[in-house]
Specification:
single chain; alpha+beta; Aminopeptidase
């Protein structure tokens, strides 16, 4: 194996920021437009390294350089203990080496170690390569629910 999977460390923040920028460029190539600002990316790059982290981070390292990440947190999906994959990305120069598969395998291992019975995530409907990748892993889509969200600080419920 020409790479390792390890837990993220605070010194990875710059590399995570660069990978997030590349990830947003990848999305913009699918559908042009600004997906996240530089400030939002900088904040996201540090979410796992705050004093009160909101997620954990796996880093794929190749030749001493981070080339992929998987952000995750634990929670409940429907009635099941679950590991939520908040983000998965492998740099363009490191794709097709088994890194994404290894990151997902480590997520499954971490989930099982914590007693979770599911690993869950969302995929942008327009990201066909991601759908194909996840299907090759044996993942199933669940279309019965629609993701919903509330932006904090943008109005109160009516």
């Amino acid at each position: 194996m020409s790479f390792i999977i390890r837990q993220g460390r605070p010194e990875d923040r710059g590399a995570v920021f660069a990978m997030l920028r590349e990830f947003m460029d990848y999305f913009a190539a699918i559908e042009p437009g600004e997906i996240a600002t530089e400030a939002e990316l900088a904040e996201t790059a540090g979410l796992a390294f705050r004093p009160d982290p909101v997620c954990s981070l796996l880093i794929a390292e190749r030749k001493g350089r981070p080339v992929g990440y998987l952000a995750y947190h634990f929670g409940v999906w429907n009635v099941y203990a679950a590991l939520y994959v908040a983000g998965l990305f492998v740099t363009a120069d490191a794709r097709k080496l088994g890194i994404g598969k290894a990151l997902m395998a480590e997520a499954r291992r971490l989930a099982a170690a914590r007693g979770a019975t599911h690993v869950t995530w969302t995929v942008w409907r327009k990201n066909d390569p991601a759908f194909a990748f996840y299907r090759r892993l044996g993942a199933e889509s669940y279309d019965d629910d629609l993701p919903m969200f509330l932006k904090i600080g943008e109005g109160e419920p009516r």
